[in-house]
Amino acid sequence: MSEIKIVRNTAPKQKPDENNLVFGKYFTDHMFEMDWNQQQGWHDARIVPYGPLELSPACTCLHYGQETFEGMKAYRNPHGEIYLFRPMENFKRLNRSNERLCIPQIDEEFALKALLELIKMDKDWVPHTEGTSLYIRPFVIGTEPSLGAHSSSEYKFLIIMCPVGAYYATGLNPVSIFVENEYVRAVRGGMGFAKTGGNYAASLKAQDVAAEEGFSQVLWLDGVERKYIEEVGAMNVFFVLGDEVVTPALQGSILPGITRKSVIELLSSWGYKVSERRLSVDELLEAYKKGNFTEMFGSGTAAVISPVGLLRYKDIDMKLSDGKIGELSQRLYDELTGIQWGKCPDPFGWTMKVE
Amino acid sequence: MSEIKIVRNTAPKQKPDENNLVFGKYFTDHMFEMDWNQQQGWHDARIVPYGPLELSPACTCLHYGQETFEGMKAYRNPHGEIYLFRPMENFKRLNRSNERLCIPQIDEEFALKALLELIKMDKDWVPHTEGTSLYIRPFVIGTEPSLGAHSSSEYKFLIIMCPVGAYYATGLNPVSIFVENEYVRAVRGGMGFAKTGGNYAASLKAQDVAAEEGFSQVLWLDGVERKYIEEVGAMNVFFVLGDEVVTPALQGSILPGITRKSVIELLSSWGYKVSERRLSVDELLEAYKKGNFTEMFGSGTAAVISPVGLLRYKDIDMKLSDGKIGELSQRLYDELTGIQWGKCPDPFGWTMKVE
Ligand SMILES: Cc1ncc(COP(=O)(O)O)c(C=O)c1O
Ligand SMILES: Cc1ncc(COP(=O)(O)O)c(C=O)c1O
């Protein structure tokens, strides 16, 4: 399993304009692929030209949603070197998702090795322009070519990559968020902590409604009591309540974000009191009334830090940080992106050089 | 959109042995396919040789679980004619699933027309042996070739078909069911009523645990209070409690089964009192102690009626119908399969001939 076969792309594509990168549209010249079956386990690791998959129309992932994925980035520093940000955290999370979805575990060290190899081959695809990066999508799909609602007997693990633009084209910008009251994304006992298709499928409807009303994301409430804050579409959330920074505890229904973890570690190192705990909408409303809820932001790989300028719950609008970028949001954004793009020291050892 | 282009399979496969049909493994010579995009809507309807799909590794269904499906059967009657059972119910349900998953609606009449055409082309694949049938799998997948957790801008609708054996090789047989206490399949506000990958992905883990312990399926409880009965893996459930037949009401978290609907209609026509209502495990335990809970069965396209001989909740074993086939289960099974395989009159007009 230590060998990665390489088939070079003999017809490399023209790279897209770095100043007009649309998220998730332009893929690099190569992808990593390996297969699993009961006899051989994971086998046939290979880097091949990026291109379509041939899948049986009956295959498990197309019917029963047995699929997991990750999202991470490679960044180019001012010296032109390429760095990853906490990549092992992603592969560990992938395995936790795999466990929940009855997908065989992947050798995390080997996955990292494969990723490094792939990035080296497509290194010219890591964009140079300020704020851009290479988005990396490892994913696993059940590929047994037969119907039946049981775990697949065959799988594919792939890594595909695409250069992406700055999330905030015009600089960091506050977003409006809407507390979702009708739809539920995930529930205790479900698979909310896993990065798997079904969780995103369940969210589409609410996201569409929110977008129509001019909101960028919905804030999910817990599925049981529908009063405790969970997370937004693709971000974890933080609230500044007086001298406490609160983020919902990980209780199985939300994704354990790697940016979330980094924010907690950073804030703690700066001397902030960070609480991972239950937080109800009512508590937020109370705090807002008292002038004690002053700042909110989301954390995720895509946007890094996303300041929230407006939070709507039913017909109550909570305006935060004067609708501007909160102080803590800005500081966290600067520090995290500074570390990621190699402009600041990395005291935590979070980054990993792609040799 | 009224034209279906036909590309005949010039290399038809050998048909599998009708006495050894494994569910979901052998597909017929053709499949139906059509595509959707924003400009053209549903277009390019075609029947083509059954074969692999070429999908972008970035396509929506492989990452974000935007996929819906149906399951139905075609039956051969003693005169060799082929019949469908309530097929429009399936296409209507597919559209309800599509609506929840932000997938464009399909013209139900057209889908039926396409299915009839497809069955006619592969009519020799509808098996003749007692208890066998042709399983039909319509499904829709999001196929936009780019990443991003939003509704796909492209879709494929397909119908694939496979001959399947009798569900109970040795005749109707009681199964053992286990009340699931840890995992949750779906919750109010979620997508439990839709036939979509994520619901099945969420179930895999519990099914695996149950299978290891010798149970054939788990019985799901509601995700909020974890005390009300929902359904089992791929069946709705019915309980005979004194002179009342109870089945969980449709409140958004369980699949509205077409067999369930037919059972309710049949039972009512026979003069039974059928209640669609909330039913707690505690009520079941109470009724069992009093000798008032005498029979339980599942209903679904695959098994039609599945008598339950043993229901386990925590460490309490409820033995039902003496571990044999309950009286009502047998009567419903005989009547429903009689109608489906054209051996009994069809007073409800449920069957539809494939001309
Ligand atoms: C549902 C959800 N929550 C939170 C996050 C943030 O996680 P991370 O910081 O690891 O990107 C993401 C995105 O990855 C997500 O999809
Ligand atoms: C979750 C679930 N519940 C119930 C059913 C039964 O529905 P039907 O009777 O329409 O087959 C099925 C199978 O189709 C199912 O997958």
TrEMBL record, chains A, B:
EC number: 2.6.1.42
Lineage: Bacteria, Bacillati, Bacillota, Clostridia, Eubacteriales
Modified residues (N6-(pyridoxal phosphate)lysine): 195
PROSITE patterns the record matches: AA_TRANSFER_CLASS_4
Catalysed reaction equations from the record: L-isoleucine + 2-oxoglutarate = (S)-3-methyl-2-oxopentanoate + L-glutamate; L-leucine + 2-oxoglutarate = 4-methyl-2-oxopentanoate + L-glutamate; L-valine + 2-oxoglutarate = 3-methyl-2-oxobutanoate + L-glutamate
Protein name stated in the entry: Branched-chain-amino-acid aminotransferase
GO biological process: amino acid biosynthetic process; branched-chain amino acid biosynthetic process
Species, as recorded: Fumia xinanensis
Family listed: Belongs to the class-IV pyridoxal-phosphate-dependent aminotransferase family.
A Pfam family it matches: Aminotran_4
Reported cofactor(s): pyridoxal 5'-phosphate
Pathway linked to the protein: Amino-acid biosynthesis; L-leucine biosynthesis; L-leucine from 3-methyl-2-oxobutanoate: step 4/4; Amino-acid biosynthesis; L-valine biosynthesis; L-valine from pyruvate: step 4/4; Amino-acid biosynthesis; L-isoleucine biosynthesis; L-isoleucine from 2-oxobutanoate: step 4/4
Keyword field: Amino-acid biosynthesis, Aminotransferase, Branched-chain amino acid biosynthesis, Pyridoxal phosphate, Transferase
Listed GO MF terms: branched-chain-amino-acid transaminase activity
Xref: NCBIfam families: ilvE_II, PRK13357.1
